[in-house]
């Protein structure tokens, strides 16, 4: 919480990271290093690509907007976080951006925009959401960037859902157990297994959608307290609770 | 969650709400009802004042920007949520606004801005934060608005902290137990008692601050997983976890 994002600059690069590797950054990242972060030849930074862990690199050249890097050593082994998907009905873009940023910090593996019957937002700018996810991953110290998938209809997602992946369904419309009770019980049967978490649009799910969801054997309906939460609040709250009882927030002091 | 904020307009008014009461709204609320929500004479809405429950009211007159209301009946008795304070170091205004909105939805009783040694934000617009809290309370169905206090120094807050109020301290710098474990254990000794939750600035707490906090008998240090959370994420996550193990999210299905 509330630590300076990191004293060392961290960048996500889609390059192979290996001992002795050297390459030039693309222009936006070169601009960021030189003009925003004011780094010069000889400065260190950290790189990750989602596969090869975290590496320390040094700026070896900087001229006319081009920045060359040389890799030094691997400073953290690649880890894999919990296999948790966030299925999120699109909401207004500022709040959707909040969800992507927070979901990345909270360790989701993938974000699946799901268009529901009451979804009021017409388009999803997936490229912009991916950029948000990269930025948040760089900031929060993750070694991977969650995949932001192209939107699908909720129907299609349900019909093709992997049957062994539990789907926690935040349902404010009908009786449901508190999230931590329901998830803790399910962890007994599915610890280490794959999970998903479904958050509706501001307009809520339709009755038909709720009926269909509740008929699926992989769906676990839950509730999040007595007040009406906005969609972005519900996403952040549910992800936090899931991490605390089923994810990587469970470990003791370290 | 993610339900349409409420089909009925809800307004917070600082008026006595009682059978037969009638009054005019102030201009911004009159403007909101007539020009934004397009309500006319005869329309119903809901009112709350933080003391007298929720009341159904009817628009009895509307002319030249003035709107008169007549109270019909009390539709919900006043309740009191958990006695939880959020002590939040000021952060950039958009993120501070997010914290106030989410903390209101998540049911805090009061928000106490605490200026720490690494607080980088110079001023706090308390009036604007109060307006955010009112708007969020209207939206989420609460019957009260959390008090947003004037900023104090963290030192002053610690020195005058009520000794029987547990203070959950999200400390990323040293070993600490996961929040839900530490809070659940403390609930055994303090169930129904008053609580607080402390979130630092983006720059983190200073070593001196951490030392001082950890010396206080009322402080419970906790951690929130292995990734670095932004201050606003940490606040929302910690409030959700607290509600789930010590607050009003604990109730069974309803």
Characterization of the model:
With 254 residues, chain A is of the alpha/beta class. Chain A folds into two domains: 10-76, Ribosomal Protein L25, Chain P (Beta Barrel); 84-246, SPOUT methyltransferase, trefoil knot domain (Alpha/beta knot, 3-Layer(aba) Sandwich), CATH 3.40.1280.10. Helix content of chain A is 32%, strand content 25%. Chain A has seven helices and 13 strands. The first copy, chain A, has helices spanning 27-36, 93-105, 126-140, 154-159, 179-190, 207-215, 231-246; strands spanning 10-12, 22-24, 44-48, 54-63, 66-76, 84-88, 110-115, 147-148, 152-153, 166-170, 177-178, 195-199, 219-223. In chain A, strands 6, 7, 8, 9, 10, 11, 12 and 13 form an eight-stranded parallel sheet that branches. In chain A, helix 2 (93-105) packs parallel to helix 3 (126-140), helix 2 (93-105) runs parallel beside helix 7 (231-246) and helix 5 crosses helix 7 (231-246). The longest helix of chain A has 16 residues, at 231-246. The first copy, chain A, is elongated and about 60 Å long. Chain A starts with 9 loop residues before the first strand and ends in an 8-residue tail after the last helix. Residues 1-6 of chain A have low confidence and may be disordered. Chains A and B meet through helix 2, strand 11, helix 5 and helix 7 of A and helix 2, strand 11 and helix 7 of B.
């Amino acid at each position: 919480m509330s630590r300076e994002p990191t004293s060392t600059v961290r960048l996500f690069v889609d390059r192979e990271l290996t001992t002795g590797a050297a390459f030039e950054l693309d222009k936006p990242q070169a601009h960021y290093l030189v003009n925003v972060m004011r780094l010069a030849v000889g400065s260190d930074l950290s790189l990750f690509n989602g596969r090869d862990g975290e590496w320390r690199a040094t700026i070896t050249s900087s001229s006319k907007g081009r920045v060359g890097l040389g890799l030094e050593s691997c400073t953290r082994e690649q880890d894999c976080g919990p296999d948790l998907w966030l299925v999120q009905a699109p909401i207004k873009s500022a709040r959707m951006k909040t969800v992507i940023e927070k979901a990345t910090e909270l360790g989701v593996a993938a974000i699946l925009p799901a268009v529901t019957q009451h979804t009021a937002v017409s388009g999803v700018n997936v490229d912009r959401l991916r950029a948000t996810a990269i930025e948040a991953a760089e900031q929060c110290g993750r070694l991977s960037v969650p995949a932001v998938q192209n939107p699908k209809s909720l129907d299609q997602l349900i019909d093709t859902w992997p049957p062994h992946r539990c789907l926690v369904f935040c349902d404010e419309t009908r009786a449901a157990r508190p999230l931590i009770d329901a998830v803790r019980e399910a962890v007994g049967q599915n610890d280490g297994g794959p999970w998903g978490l479904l958050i509706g649009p501001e307009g809520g799910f339709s009755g038909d959608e709720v009926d269909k969801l509740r008929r699926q054997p992989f769906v676990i309906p839950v509730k999040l307290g007595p007040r009406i939460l906005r969609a972005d609040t519900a996403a952040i709250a549910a992800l936090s609770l899931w991490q605390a009882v089923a994810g990587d927030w469970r470990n003791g002091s370290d």
